[in-house]
Specification:
With about 400 residues, the protein is of the alpha/beta class. The protein is built from 13 helices and 21 strands. Helix 1 crosses helix 8, helix 3 packs across helix 5 and helix 9 crosses helix 13. The relative contact order is 0.09. Bound molecules: cytidine-5'-monophosphate (C5P).
Length: about 400
């Protein structure tokens, strides 16, 4: 599940192990990752771009100055797309280039431009691997938190035996999820609410909103990656989450309130990303309402404010709210931050035609801290934003 919808760039440099990368790409696609392949000139000597294109279902990128994207330069667009970059096979030459920040082709330029985690999967002759300069380069990469997967020992393409073989695709598939793990929240419990609530009018009708749950689910996955024990309390949605997350399904705001109060014990962080209905029908009918007079009215009653209920608890919990606003974004969010006694509020503009917020894959937010500090995040995909938010929450907790 952790690989689902992750954007992975597979970089290929020259080496006979390229055939193993074909299987790696297939494996990643089977795990529902979105894969884009960048090939260096030398790698094209070993396997064709058409093979990699067929397996990834995406065009293969080979040149620095050829554009598939209309607005952005190729290397910048690809570096922003990436949740992770895995270079397999990684030649001794590429490892040297990466160590020294060279950017003379598309793959090395993407590696320099991306902020996503990078892994190299070395594949080379044993003497090249053992060469002092290669070992120095590998040590320098590890120091920069670049992952190094392998190499393995065994028979090499040149007939020699020793360290330098690329590890097997199945092993690489097991190692890639580690690129998303951090231990920022190790041993901490995070409770997250997500999605809309449904407030019954009668057994077949309800009042709800357009929340897609995407932000809450992305936060839950990011919190899991950061090592937390995650409880996700969610209104109706068709999204899935990792089986490692405790997933509680609810329908109404009252049910969400009850579930939150049950889970809040021993909780370190509460993130309220749900679009909770502020009101519910005062008298939900047990029978289907029949068509009758031209106009009818439904009396509505206030739902409990779950966020305020959490902040009024005696236990000290770091509480994060969301403010989805159609106007006066920052002013309204600030008011909620104060009134609801939050540690942090994430303000995002919603409304039709923005391509942001509720049902979108992207979000553009401003974070307001209790101490008055505010930070604006540019438009980005919700799962990328979720990781940034989790990091921001951790540093705010520690400051
Ligand atoms: O007051 P408003 O609904 O705009 O506040 C938004 C924040 O409050 C969100 O974090 C939302 O999840 C939370 N909320 C809540 N309970 C409600 C209404 C909103 O926890 N009844």
């Amino acid at each position: 599940m952790i690989m689902q919808n992750k954007n992975i760039i597979i970089g290929m440099t020259g080496g006979i192990a390229a055939y193993k990368t074909a299987e790696l790409v297939r494996g990643l696609c089977n795990l529902k990752a979105k894969v884009r392949v960048i090939m260096t000139k030398n790698s094209e000597e070993f396997i064709t771009p058409l093979t990699m294109q067929t397996l990834s279902g995406e065009p293969v990128y080979t040149e620095l100055f050829k554009t598939h994207f209309r607005k952005n330069l190729e290397h910048i667009a690809l570096s922003r797309f990436a949740d992770a970059v895995v270079v397999a096979p990684a030649s001794a030459n590429f490892i040297a280039k990466l160590t020294h920040g060279l950017a003379d082709d598309l793959l090395s330029a993407v590696c320099l431009a991306t902020t996503a985690p990078i892994a190299v999967v070395p594949a080379m002759n044993k003497e090249m691997w053992q060469a002092a300069i290669t070992q120095e380069n590998i040590a320098a990469l590890k120091k920069r938190n670049i992952f190094v997967f392998g190499p393995a020992s065994g028979e090499q393409a040149c007939g020699e035996v020793g360290f330098g073989r690329m590890i097997e695709p199945q092993e690489i598939l097991k190692l890639i999820p580690k690129m998303f793990e951090s231990q920022l929240f190790y041993g901490k419990k995070i409770v997250i609410t997500a999605g809309p609530t449904r407030e019954n009018i009668d057994p077949v009708r309800y009042i709800s909103n357009y929340s897609s749950s995407k932000m809450g689910y992305a936060l839950a996955e990011a919190a899991l990656e950061a090592g937390a024990y995650v409880v996700l309390i969610s209104g109706p949605t068709n999204l899935d989450c990792s089986t490692k997350i405790k997933h509680i399904n609810i329908h109404t705001a009252e049910e969400m309130h009850k579930a939150v109060m049950q889970e809040i014990s021993a909780c370190d962080v509460f993130i309220s990303a749900a679009a909770v209905s502020d009101y519910r029908p005062a008298n939900s009918s047990s029978q289907k309402t029949k068509k009758g007079t031209e106009r009818i009215s439904i009396e509505l009653k206030r739902n409990p404010d779950i966020l305020s209920a959490v902040t009024s608890l005696k236990r000290k919990i770091f509480v994060v709210g969301f403010a989805a606003e159609t106007k006066n974004l920052v002013a309204n969010a600030k008011e909620k931050l104060i009134n609801k006694k939050l540690n942090m509020i994430i303000a995002n503009k919603v409304g039709s035609g923005l391509g942001l917020g509720f049902d979108s894959d992207d979000n553009e937010v401003v974070i307001l801290h209790k101490n008055g500090k505010s930070v604006k995040f540019p438009k980005m995909r919700k799962n990328k934003l979720a990781r940034e938010l989790i990091k921001t929450i951790r540093s705010a907790m520690l400051s």
